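[agent] plan:
  1. take the single chain provided in the ticket
  2. run structure prediction with default settings
  3. attach structure tokens to the ticket
  4. add a short note for the reviewer (M.T.)
[agent] executing step 1
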Amino acid sequence: MEQQKIKLGSHVGMNGKDMFAGSVREALSYGANTFMIYTGAPQNTRRKELAQLHIEAGHALMEQNGIEEFIVHAPYIINPANSVNPATFELAVNFLRLELDRSSSMGSRILVLHPGSHVGAGKEKGIRKIAECINTVLEAGSECMIALETMAGKGSEIGSTFEDLAEIYDQVGQSNLLRVCMDTCHMHDAGYPVSEDFDSVLETFDRLLGLSQIAAIHINDSKNPRGAGKDRHANIGEGYIGYEALHRIVHHPALVKVPKILETPYRPLPDDPSKTAAPYKEEIAWLLQP
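[agent] step 2 finished; step 3 output follows
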């Protein structure tokens, strides 16, 4: 397999005066050929106008350097599974609609979404609310799809099983505009044998949803044993999944066309441990080794 066919990048920032153009430059500095951004801070609803994001300059840089696509991640504050607090659900609907519009306007075809937490109301109610939210915001002909992320099963999270995701698909009218973003740490922490037998994970997913539904994969090691349900990312080769397993996933022949995104922790600087730096350049180069 030719290395250049593998789509591998990382989460990058979008701030400062160059905004999206700066995001592309950061990705290029890591040797990436794809990347993932938030359209604003993931913890709040403050967003800059699209005209301030230097979108055209960013796309020009992408074209010059052979980057064909990028992914947007929806903010953490969106919880479409909440049936307990109407205000929280209303925020999820309104903000998800905004993020879909912004992602589409920026030129991304994939918006990754955490399915959310049912906050004690039960998985069945939570799944109904997720589908209700998505049915409200997804419109036929949308240029951007929603990719439901596989979750670790922490607390009352929905999406820790492929069956959860299949149930959401079944209740969404425009399910042709749904996709899935796998997360290796999350699947491992949820109990799937990511390290030991990833082919069986793919077989299970293919049976329930179909491999064509995998739109992206977050490549992360895990600080916890399989099935811990805790969601703590580790740097590549420093967790319970391990380098060999993650390398196989990155190079898996069934996933060549799927963008793969690192979300591993920043590392302390050797000369100043109070400061940290992104590990992505080294991890991308390591994972791309034959």
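[agent] step 4 note for reviewer: The first helix runs from residue 19 to 29.
[agent] ticket updated
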